Amino acid sequence: MSSMSAMNVSLNNNRKLLKNRKHKPFTKMNGGPGKTRIYKPYTLPKLQPHILRRIRLKTRRQNKRLFIKKLMIGIVVILMLTYWLFQL
Prior knowledge:
88 residues, mainly alpha, 2 helices
């Protein structure tokens, strides 16, 4: 029953804070209400098509290798679990 009373107390305190309007919500986010940060937009450099193609092929190759590694580890784990289950 104490959890219900704690919930009621918390709700009442929140209502009081909203009525006073001295409390500004979301002030702790992003360093406070008065700070505005200016972000510089990042512009990508102009690249030639053959360089982009090389990058694309390289990332595909890396993703393929990563997939094969994950697949091998998964197969080994499954084999170990099945061996362990059938030993019992």
